[in-house]
Specification:
about 290 residues, alpha/beta, 2 domains, six-stranded parallel sheet, 10 helices, about 20% strand
């Protein structure tokens, strides 16, 4: 595995790789790697000849009161996982290397970012779009692999790629969960034992919404009420949103039809959880 720590080093590798003319699969991460990240690397390995992983805790996507300084970091563990998954190139830059003092450009994706996470975390998606624009320009991958747990982020990055005309295929990969349904996340490390027991309630609420739809409920408000009632059984410390949305535009729905995504964000202790479930909705009664 080749470890690259500077943007100039990555540019040099990429120029050398141009002569090889093989496919490049790219997995962007913020480190503290887990089985969800492993699944992305394995998918990239199956579909591409060369696998590139980036580990960079991006300061631009954290708000001033958020957890940038205490975000989990485990370089030794991350290196071991990348080697175990036979990653070819690991891009591991320092913040002042990735964003030099002269850096003064930001990138914004409009419309898709105005609701849900965009409303709860102002400037978050601008930070995501900026770091991804820089990474994609440096790596120039054939395919880019993203986890569906961060569904809105997936849509934002796909829109960014489409609008900028970059030649990479963006692949959404299934959320990886623990046995009780909790979506794997680096921030799960923050949880106490009692908080960890409560954490799967968001997934159970989304499942309850999906089951209501399967029974024929088509009014979004009724499904959202079902999800809200189930969430309360876990005694959350806050509910940011529970919503039924168009899976392509993330606009809230009144009546459910077609491809629908159930979105949720709650807080337990000092930890914020987001999750989603996709539902294909046909015609029915209620």
């Amino acid at each position: 595995m080749r470890i690259v720590r500077t943007t100039s080093g990555l540019q040099t590798w990429r120029r050398q790789h141009d002569a090889v003319r093989t496919t490049i699969g790219f997995v962007p991460t913020m480190g503290a790697l887990h089985d969800g990240h492993r699944s992305l690397m394995r998918r990239a390995r199956r579909l591409c000849r060369t696998v590139v992983v980036s580990i960079f805790v991006n300061p631009l996507q954290f708000g001033p009161a958020e957890d940038y300084l205490r975000y989990p970091r485990d370089t030794d563990g991350d290196l071991a996982i990348c080697r175990d998954e036979q990653v070819d190139v690991l891009f591991l830059p320092a913040p002042d290397t990735f964003y030099p003092q002269t850096f003064c450009t930001t990138v914004a994706v409009e419309t898709l970012t105005r609701r849900w996470e965009g409303e709860q975390r102002p400037a978050h998606f601008q930070g995501v779009a900026t770091v991804m624009a820089r990474l994609l320009n440096l790596v120039r991958p054939t395919q880019t692999f993203l986890g569906e747990k961060d569904y809105q982020q997936c849509l934002v990055i796909r829109q960014l790629v489409q609008d900028m005309g970059w030649d990479t295929r963006v692949r959404f990969c299934p959320t990886i969960r623990d046995a009780d349904g909790l979506a794997l996340s680096s921030r799960n490390q923050y949880l106490s034992a009692s908080q960890r027991q409560r954490a799967p309630v968001l997934y159970r609420a989304l499942l309850g919404g999906k089951e209501a739809i399967a029974r024929g409920v088509r009014r979004a408000r009724a499904v959202e009420k079902t999800m809200a009632g189930l969430v309360q059984t876990g005694h959350p410390d806050g509910v940011d949103y529970l919503a039924c949305c168009d899976a392509r535009t993330l606009e809230p729905l009144i009546r459910l039809q077609g491809d629908v995504v159930l979105l949720g964000a709650i807080r337990i202790g000092g930890v914020r959880f987001i999750d989603n479930l996709m539902v294909r909705v046909g015609d029915s009664r209620g």
